[in-house]
Amino acid sequence: MVRALLPALLSMALTGVPAVLPNTAAAVPYDGQTRRETALFSVKSTNNAAAQAFTVTGTRLSRVSFYLGSGAATGTVTVQVRRVRTDAGSAVASKTLSLAALGGAGAGWVEFPVSASVTAGATYYLFVQATTAESKPVAWYGTRQSVPGSLTSWNYDKAYWGGWHADSSRLAFHVNPTGSERCGETEPCYVPASALAARTSGLLTNRVATEAVLPSFAVGASYVDGSNVLRLPSGRWRYLPDGASASTVVAADDPGALAQVDEGRAWLAAGRVPGTTTAQRAAAQRALLSMRALLKPNGAFAAGWSPPWEYSWPRDGAFAAVAFAATGHDDEAYRILGYDARTQRADGTWEARTKLDASGPPDARKWQLDANGWVPWATWQWYQAAPPGARDERLRTLYPMVRKAADYATRSLGPNGLPPASPDYWELDTATTNIGTAAPLLAGLNASADLAARLGMDGDAERWGDAARRLSAGIAAAFAPLGYQRTIDGKHGRDSAVAFMAPPFNTAPPGLGGALDSTYRALLLPNGGVSPGNDPGFSWGSYAWTASTSFFALAWSGTGEQARAGRVLDWVLSKRNGLGELPETVNGAGLPSSVAPLGWTDSLVVLTALALQGSPQPTPPTRAGTARTGTAPLGGR
């Protein structure tokens, strides 16, 4: 309904319908009706307005609401409670709000706080009129269906009726709304059209089930600090009770909701929330809670919570595992790696993505070789952060997975030292090897060799270390002269995956600093973020990707470029939505779009915040070296 607002308004016809007799006082109070499928009456001054007759049992009015649809972004909306419909001087309450304050063009229930004394049982009129210089429609919604026991809705159309007209349609309104009548509970508050660029705005969870908070129910809401419990505009809370599959609205002091808040805060306190500024810490806290909401009990990590994203990608899960491990949440990290071990294919590779129940891929999307780098890299990062007591034993459980992945990666290298062409994080094929596959495989082979050495598997360590050296030489020969462009044939432009050659993935090779600089400039968009790439044969349009933008923040934060990293991270954090969630993309207008949160971006923000506060992730060493933090300035500047 909200998505169809503008077409519905633009096609609205203010044609006449048979009049009904003026109402008298109703025996049963008529103080609201919720049907709002039709844009009934224009309320734009000076030629249009609307009014709804109502009665109440009490003697005080504290709040009124009605369902508004506006194509106009500027102007005002005035609500009055009148004793006499045609007489503004009879108003016992009046309130004006600006459309800009509501968020501009949009649709939904608008609540107006009022304070007035009324006579119980007497008929009053809820009068609405908008003022705007724009030519776009502003309308009060309602229904053309019969509403038993209702009072008259009135349409003021000076040009058509010559004034007021009693109509058989019924406007959507509430007088003194309470409980579920308040917007944001079962019906949406006024939702700016700009908010609908995103599919989801937040998450509710009970650590087993997950539910998306839709943009239409995020307006005016906020999370209870340290939790995935939502505080609604009405003051009540929405949460997903333990054992439930759907959320419920409860009083703010509900024991079940309070227990969930306490549990979330305790989980955060058991680890660490990084950040050098208030904004970074707030973003990192929300990111950690959202990552936890996306993690299933079996270790599957959903990319986001909208149907096309409700699958587990090895790549996204790897980053989440590293972020969990680095912030002291060992169980969550190890659970993801265990899921990777169970879903690895017999040949050592992974499907591009799997269903969250681990039953297999949802479709025939081509598998992606970069997972053979990301998963061993994540396993190595987990090992660095894991409690030392039993980590070797736990690593041995994962080691068969690492061995199969590293052996496949080793066998995949050609005479030039490079892997074959494969889809990477773009999930698109290339004709020749791409940096989005080569760089993760280098990180994964170095990580695998070091893990093998730690477990005394010297043969594996030597084999994978040799493969890493060959791959490193191949990257230096084929990618470095091109500034680490997307592919070795130089036909596919720049790629934000250049950052995968930097810590905490790989020790930065000579000249990488210049490549990072030039690639960032080439991919920078007018909205301030970056595109994944600028392949002449494929356009990402005007959308910036928060993950790709964060790649550069993480790379610079790990290589002594903290000021630059901080500026890029600040941009990413500035694009959080009203609930503080990080979106997948930012559109050309600078608004969050696609899904929010995106688990991959959440992970990157947490890792960057750690690096900026002086705790960068280590980088897998070459076979003869030791783990590096990569804090030396990059060459080639």
Task: Report on the architecture of this protein.
By secondary structure, the protein is of the alpha+beta class. It has 14 helices and 23 strands. It has helices at residues 5-10, 99-102, 255-270, 278-294, 314-326, 330-343, 371-385, 391-412, 435-454, 458-478, 512-523, 546-557, 562-574, 599-612, and strands at residues 32-33, 38-42, 48-54, 60-70, 76-82, 91-98, 106-117, 124-131, 138-143, 153-157, 163-167, 170-171, 173-175, 191-192, 202-205, 210-213, 222-223, 230-231, 237-239, 248-250, 544-545, 585-586, 592-593. Strand 17 and strand 18 form a beta hairpin. The protein is elongated, with a radius of gyration of 29 Å. Mean pLDDT is 93; it is low at 1-26 and 625-637.
Write the SSE topology.
Layout: H1 5-10, E1 32-33, E2 38-42, E3 48-54, E4 60-70, E5 76-82, E6 91-98, H2 99-102, E7 106-117, E8 124-131, E9 138-143, E10 153-157, E11 163-167, E12 170-171, E13 173-175, E14 191-192, E15 202-205, E16 210-213, E17 222-223, E18 230-231, E19 237-239, E20 248-250, H3 255-270, H4 278-294, H5 314-326, H6 330-343, H7 371-385, H8 391-412, H9 435-454, H10 458-478, H11 512-523, E21 544-545, H12 546-557, H13 562-574, E22 585-586, E23 592-593, H14 599-612
Antiparallel strand pairs: 1-13, 2-9, 3-8, 3-10, 4-7, 4-9, 4-13, 5-6, 5-8, 7-14, 9-12, 10-11, 15-16, 17-18, 18-19, 19-20, 21-22, 22-23
Helix pairs in contact: 4-14, 5-6, 5-7, 5-14, 6-7, 6-8, 7-8, 7-9, 8-9, 8-10, 9-10, 12-13, 12-14, 13-14
